[in-house]
Design a protein that fits this description.
Elements (H helix, E strand, L loop, with lengths): L20 H8 L3 E5 L2 E4 L1 H20 L3 E2 L5 E3 H6 L2 H4 L5 E4 L5 E4 L4 H11 L8 E10 L14 E10 L3 H21 L3
Parallel strand pairs: 3-7
Antiparallel strand pairs: 1-2, 4-6, 5-6, 7-8
Helix pairs in contact: 2-6
Length: 190
């Protein structure tokens, strides 16, 4: 598409509620617009940038042997109760009931689901190590959502989990992840 045809609604003035520089710049550049407190719309330019960043993250995670998953946004209460985090998250977790009155949550993170899959599917130490990751929307009912995309109620997050045979394996996995993050940040110019 030609740049002259692109929808990039720039702003001359920064909205007064934009507190941090990155938030102000993204608003003025026509990358995002606020839908409600802590929830943003990615406009075409912002969506394109986010997809490029996600592409870099995927390449670097795949480079260290990571395998991408897509897990459900909705999560069962019993899974969170097993770890004690149903109550630990308190008001920060969005909770809802389905039509059968079953308690569900919009996942603020996915440790519980990844752990459940690992417990049910990894059958032997020979299946290890495993590095699993995903990039998806998460939800947290922030009491005072501010700082643009940095402290939102709905946000894109990449989370990764390694399952290792022993502590030495865990240390190796951690080192690989750390190196991957260094490359990601370098490729993003940070």
């Amino acid at each position: 598409m030609r740049l002259s045809r692109a929808f990039i609604p720039t702003l001359k003035e920064t909205p007064s509620d934009a507190e941090i520089k990155s938030h102000r710049l993204m608003l003025r550049a026509g990358m995002i617009r606020m839908h409600m407190a802590g929830v943003y719309c990615y406009l075409p330019l912002g969506w394109r940038v986010l997809r490029k960043i996600e592409g870099i993250v995927r390449e670097e995670m795949d480079r260290i042997g990571g395998q991408e998953f897509l897990l459900p946004t909705l999560s069962r209460r019993d899974l969170w109760e097993r770890t004690g985090r149903w109550t630990e998250y308190g008001d920060d977790m969005f909770r809802l009931k389905d039509r059968k009155k079953a308690d569900l949550a919009l996942a603020p993170t996915h440790e519980e689901v990844f752990s459940e899959i690992a417990a049910g599917e990894i059958r032997s130490y020979r299946d290890l190590p495993q590095t699993w990751y995903q990039i998806q929307m998460k939800f947290r009912d922030e009491p005072r959502p501010r700082s643009g995309l940095l402290r939102g109620r709905q946000f894109t997050m990449k989370d990764a989990y390694s399952f290792d045979r022993d502590w030495e394996g865990l240390d190796r996995s951690y080192a690989l992840e750390r190196e991957a993050y260094h490359r990601i940040l370098k490729r993003c110019g940070l």
